[in-house]
């Protein structure tokens, strides 16, 4: 059985390239997300971090710039690089969400996430039913079938479920919803991870009828029915994500 954390790294086949730049980003990012690098703390100087991670100054500086762009750190002249509070983090960034997942998100964060997901995905489903193309419907049905076929394999199942949701984002024809695929991916991981920990051996059965109803609503161009079906899926996921 796969460990829940591995879903973050392999969910949609985007394993991060094994290079020094990505290694340093991930090590510092997870350190910040886990609290090992506390908010307000000043990161060690360049020489110490170069020695710790075994990288050149150029690689380290580029990694810190990437983390600054994601809102995790802020560099100040004569002060150093300071760890920023979560209110500054880009929570729509897939990597940032992955680090939070690996660190173990707290209950309050998950509650806030579930509230946002409800708004985004129900609207996405409704718009997809109204605007989807024939090709997008074909791909939606393909991933629905894959979801059933891979029901006993955590990572392939998670991939199929994520791709189903991602196609809905594409079919909405809304660029802001398309850009929210990282949030969708986070929700898939959050719902499946506790099932893995609980020893589940078949992941599809609980929501199979709900997913079929959603696919049917999209196929028949029924926006209201699509939103309702998505709401049922999210309610089932909410129980796993929040434990209530």
Task: Give an overview in words.
The structure is a single chain. The protein is mainly alpha-helical and 244 residues long. It has two domains: 4-88, Arc Repressor Mutant, subunit A, CATH 1.10.10.10; 106-242, GntR ligand-binding domain-like (Four Helix Bundle (Hemerythrin (Met), subunit A), Up-down Bundle). 68% of the residues lie in helices and 3% in strands. It is built from twelve helices and two strands; from the N terminus they run ααααββαααααααα. Strands 1-2 form a two-stranded antiparallel sheet. Helix 7 (134-149) packs antiparallel against helix 11 (208-219) and helix 8 runs antiparallel to helix 10 (181-197). It is elongated. Residues 12-17 have low confidence and may be disordered.
The averaged pLDDT comes out at: 92
Any idea how many domains?
A: 2
Structural category is mainly alpha
Give the CATH topology of the largest domain: Four Helix Bundle (Hemerythrin (Met), subunit A)
Q: State Rg.
A: 20 Å
Highest CATH level, the class of the largest domain: Mainly Alpha
Order of helices and strands: HHHHEEHHHHHHHH
CATH superfamily of the largest domain: GntR ligand-binding domain-like
Strand content: under 5%
What is the chains' assembly state? Answer: single chain
Largest beta sheet, briefly? 2 strands, antiparallel
User: Looking across the biggest beta sheet, what order are the strands in?
Assistant: 1-2
Instruction: Calculate the terminal CA-CA distance, rounded to whole Å.
Output: 25 Å
Question: Which residues form runs of ≥5 with pLDDT under 50?
Answer: 12-17
Helix count, DSSP H or I runs of 4 or more residues: 12
- Which outline best applies? elongated
CATH architecture verdict of the largest domain = Up-down Bundle
Helical proportion? 55-70%
